[in-house]
Amino acid sequence: MKKTSLSFIALLFFLPAFSWQEKPIQHGNEAEQQLENLAERQNGEPEDDAYLQAMDQLRKNKLNLNNAVENDLKQLQLISELQIQNLIKYKRLLGSLISIYELQAIPGWDLATIQKVLPYLMVGNSNSLPGNLKQRLTLGQHSLLVRFQLVLEKSNGFIRPDSIANRYSGSRQKVFFRYKYNFRNLFQFGITGDKDAGEQFFSGTQKQGFDFYSVHLFARKLGPVKLLALGDFTVNLGQGLIHWQSLAFKKSVDITSVKRQADILRPYNSSGEYNFMRGAGITVATKNFDFTTFASVRKLDGSLNTDTSQTNDDFISAILNSGYHRTKAELAKKNAMTQSSFGGNISYNKNPLHIGVNAISVRFSNPLVRNVATYNQYAITGKGWSNYSIDYGYTYRNFHFFGEAAIDKNSSKALVGGVLASLDEKVDASVVYRSIEESYQALYGNAFTENTFPTNEKGLFTGLSIRPFSFLKINAYADVFSFPWLKYRVDAPSQGSEYLLQVSYKPNKQIEVYTRFKNENKAVNLTGLGLAMRQAYARPKDSWRTHITYNVSRQFTYHQRVEILWFDRHEKSRSQQGFLFYVDGKYRLTKKAVTLNGRIQYFETDGFDSRLYAYENDVLYSYSIPQFMGEGLRYYLNFNWDVNKKTTVWCRWAQTIYANQNSISSGLDKIEGNKRSEIKLQVMYNF
Q1: pLDDT tens digits, residue range 330-359?
Q2: How many CA atoms lie within 13 A of 394 on its CB side?
Q3: Is pLDDT above 60 for 10?
Q4: What is the pLDDT of residue 308?
Q5: What is the mean pLDDT of residues 363-377?
C-alpha cells in the first residue's frame, strides 16, 4: 500500500469538516450501510427491488397514521417493533393524532426516527376508506418503465468466433421493462420482462422476446381478505428459519432492526429469476386470527443428470439461481426441473401478543442428488422437503420479545429468540440468540444468522444504542458465534466473533458525521483446496471508516468517505490491506426539474480478502454496490430529468480505471485492457 498517499488523502478528507455552514441535511446512511453489508455477504447486489418500489409508492401515497395498523407500519422497515407498539398504545389511550408533530410525544420516537420516516407518513381523517373495487380498478396510476444497460468494452464471451460453443449467443445489452398499475398501495398488477447481457432477444431460442417474464396481481384489505396474491409473489414466514423471500438485513449499525418484519405475502415484479413463488396465495383475517395459504408451481434451472442404473431415474445434482442463459451450456440447464410448493400460516394477534404456526412443503419433479462432500453431507436431497415452525412476539412495557422455533423433515431443530428493550429515553438495546443444528436445512431460509442460510450455528448478538445528547449517537454490537460442523473452506468445527462501534455526530440539520470501527474474526482453511483435510485458523479483519454528509443548500448535497481495512495484519506473509476514498455531490436545478449527482473515488486493495464495497446512487429502483479490488479510479455521473408530470428520464455513466492491470475479470467475462465503462438509460412514463 502507498502509505504516504493514504495519509495525504485522509488529511484532505478532514479539512472541509471545519468550514461548513448550516443547511438542511439528507438521511439514509444506516440504510446504505445495511445494503453494503448485504452485498458483501451475497458477493453481489440485490436483485429484488420490491422494497425500493414500496418506499417510492409511500412517498407518493403517504401512510395515514390514524388508519395504519400494525402490519402497515411494519412495511416501512424503518421503525422497530417497540416503536410500533408504542404508537399503537398512544392511539389507543389518546385517540387519533391531530398533527404529525405529535409523534415527538410518543416514547421511543426520537427526533432522528421522526425525520427518517416523515417522507412516508401523514396525519389525516381516520375515517377515510380504502376504496371500493371500482375505485381500485379506475383511480390508480399506470406506469411503464424501460431500462437499457451496456458495458462498452467487449468481454471474451462476445469476441469468440461463432464456431466456439462456449460463447455468449446474444447481444451485449441488458434490457428490463415493467408495466404496473397501482392504487394507493392497496391494489396492483403488472408484467415484467428481463434480458441479461449475452442472452438472445427475439431470436434463436428467445423468439418470444425477453428471457424472463413475471406477471402479478396483488390486493390488500378487501373486506375479510387481508392479502391476495396471484401470479408471482414472495412468502415470508416467522423469523426466516423455514422461509423468507423478501429483502431482509442481518447485522448492522441499526441494532433495533434485528427482527424480521413483513407481510407473509408480498407482490413480486423484480428481475431476479429464482427467489419467488408462482401461483396463488391468500390471507383471510378475523378479529384476532389470520389464516394464510399459498401454492406455487414453477420451473427452475438445474444440472440434470441421466441415471444409467437399472432404476433409470434422472436426477438433479444442483439447483441454479443465477438466471443466466447466455451460452449453450446455460441454456441446456434452463427449466430443467419443476418445483411445487405449498404451505400456510395460522396466527393469533391480540396486542400485545402474537403467536403463529407455519408450514411449508416443497416437491421436485426429479430427485435432488448432490455431490456429497464432508462439509455438506446434511444438504437437502430427495424429491421433497418440508419445514414447520412456531413464531411469537410479545410486548411487556419497554420490552418486546420475539422468536421462532423450527423443525425440518428429518426432525432437525432450529431456534432464534430475541428481545428489543428501551432501557431509558436515550438508551435502546437488543439481544438475539440462535441455536441451529448442523443437520437443519431450509431451502429458502433467511434468518438473523452469521451464515447465509440458517444451519450449523450457535450465536449470541447484543446491541446497544445510546443518545447522550441530541447531536450525538453511539451504536455498538458484539456477536459471538460457533459452527459445530464443517463449512465450505473450513474443515473443522470453528468459532468467531464480530464487533462494531459507531459514533454519529449531528450538530445541526445540515451536517452528519459518523466514524466506525469494525472487527471480524472468522476461521478459514490454512492451505489450498487440493488436500483431503486442511487446518482451519482464525483470520481477523479490521476496518475503520469515516463518512461526512453535508447539505450545502437546498439544491446541493455533498458526501465524503474514507475507509481503511486490515486483513490478518499480524501475519505478514498473509496480510492484506485495503483503502477507499471518495467525494460525491448531488445538485438539483429546481426550476428545470433536473438533478445531477456524481462521484469520484480512489481505491487500493491487496486482494480478494481486502475487497471493499460502496453504495452508489443509481437510476430509480436500481442498486449499484460495486466490489472493489486492486488499485484504480472509479467515477460516475447520474442525470435525472422530469420532462413533465408524466415522463422522467435517467441516464448514468460509470467507469472504473485500474492501475497496473492489463485485463479485468476472467473467463467469458474477461475484458482486455484496464477500463470498464457502463452506460444506463431509463425512461418511466406515468399515466
Answers
A1: 999 999 999 999 999 999 999 889 999 999
A2: 8
A3: no
A4: 61
A5: 89
Query: How would DSSP label each residue in 312-364?
Result: ---EEEEEE-S----SHHHHHTTT-EEEEEEEEEEEEEETTEEEEEEEEEEEE
> At 672, which amino acid appears?
E
Position 54 scores a pLDDT of 85
CA dist 415 and 435 (Å) reads 5
Amino acid letter, residue 131 = G
Cα four-point dihedral sign 271, 274, 280, 284: negative
What is the distance between the alpha carbons of residues 453 and 444, in angstroms, rounded to a whole number? 8
At 174-218, the pLDDT tens digits run 999 999 999 988 999 999 999 999 999 999 889 999 999 999 999
- The three three-digit cell numbers of residue 86, written as one number: 408504542
Measured between alpha carbons, how far is 276 from 215 in angstroms, rounded to an integer? 12
By CB atoms closer than 10 A (0-12, 13-18, 19+), residue 61 is middle
155: DSSP letter: P
What lies within 8 Å, CB to CB, of 658 at 6+ separation is: 630, 631, 632, 664, 674, 675
Alpha-carbon distance of 285 to 343, in angstroms, equals 17
What pTM does this model have? 0.91
d(CA 657, CA 676): 7
β-partners of residue 677 are: 655
**Nearest Cα residue to 212 out of 294, 339, 326:** 326
